[in-house]
Amino acid sequence: MSSVRKHFAFICLLVFMMVFASACSSDQTGSSDSGSKDKEETKNSEPIKIGVLASQTGGLEAYGKQTLRGFELGLEYATGGTMEVDGRKIQFIVEDTETKPEVAVQKATKLLEDDEVDFLVGSSSSGDTLAVLPLAEEYEKIMVVEPAVADSITGSEFNKYIFRTARNSSQDAVAGAAAIAKDGVKIATFAPDYSFGRDGVAAFKEAAEKLGAEIIHEEYADPAATDFTSNIQKVIDSKPDYLFVVWAGANSPWNQIADMKVQEKGIKISTGAPDIAALTTMEPLVGMEGFSVYYHDLPKNEINDWLVTEHKKRFNNELPDLFTPGGMSAAIAIVEAIKKTGGDTNADTLIEAMEGMSFETPKGKMTFRPEDHQALQSLYAVRLEKKEGVPYPVPVLIRELSPEETAPPIRN
């Protein structure tokens, strides 16, 4: 073979090899893209899993029950009954924290590791919730806090994965202070001795003092106590104009406050109107002015109407209670966030979608404030009154306190 022909053959071989290599590379790239698409389609068809932490036993069992009922109804409402969003089915797994922080951590870890949930929701106790917050950050999962209210959750202990549909202690405080605080008024406070109570009193004190009132005594009781005699006596001895009470749980102090004739000693009582079970013990407080987080006939909107109707239909004519709309709001927030991301449950994508997000709830419009992810929301200034046919004092609306009016300080 001549040198020219040999040279020509070599060039042809070289070109052939380059084309072959290019084709192989193209095939491999195509295969990789196809595999990636298949994986994405598989991922997007997998169910969205939500782990719900609630007190199904312990001192806040009633609150856990209300939240869970509201959460399930909220998922149904937000998905139009399909229980799916963007083609992905929604599953939720409930774990009982037993109202014990160490148990809450165990159950949350189980949900994150074994069940591989995309979201956490909860819990009934501020103590339980504070114990779980670091896990949301560690596992990079969104946690929607409901109904725990301690300011520190979206304050000193905040991390970017935390969003709260529950109101916080400062929002309660603004509403409570608006009802009674003004120049020259002397106020004593009474609360359980844990984060919920102490945060609540600190926030109330700040709000009341801005309005000119003086906090002359702070009294804290064992959260598990049933005898508050010595606590109430210390309040009486301080001789305030008002006693502002921050309380949660079945072991409420209302009967002992009545037995010790606090109001007959010239001390007016003010507090948040609690759940229906606690309202039945508040007969001595008829005429009291305070605030409410929720009572079934205070909000006037279509979602609340739906909630009241469906709740009565499904639960033996029972009315939704104090924390039922909160559970519903948490569910609606999650569904609306997933809609905004097109079914993507990546935490960073969700955070971007949820910061500043507004959504409609049984309490009207809520908005996650970008700075601390606290949901701004309405509360209600109320007066306890007797109502014919109702066996307990009823919170009657004085005025609705707007989300802007009850916006708490940013503390993170």
UniProtKB/TrEMBL annotation:
Q: Which residues form the signal peptide?
A: 1-21
Instruction: List every stretch annotated Disordered.
Output: 27-48
InterPro entries from the UniProt entry? BCAA_transport, Leu-bd, Peripla_BP_I
Q: Which Pfam families match?
A: Peripla_BP_6 (PF13458)
Q: Does the keyword Signal apply?
A: yes
The protein's superkingdom reads Bacteria
In this chain, composition skew of type Basic and acidic residues spans: 35-46
Q: Which residues are in the Leucine-binding protein domain?
A: 47-387
Q: Does the keyword Heme apply?
A: no
Per the similarity annotation, which family is this? Belongs to the leucine-binding protein family.
How is this protein named in the record? Substrate-binding domain-containing protein
| Source taxonomy | Bacteria, Bacillati, Bacillota, Bacilli, Bacillales
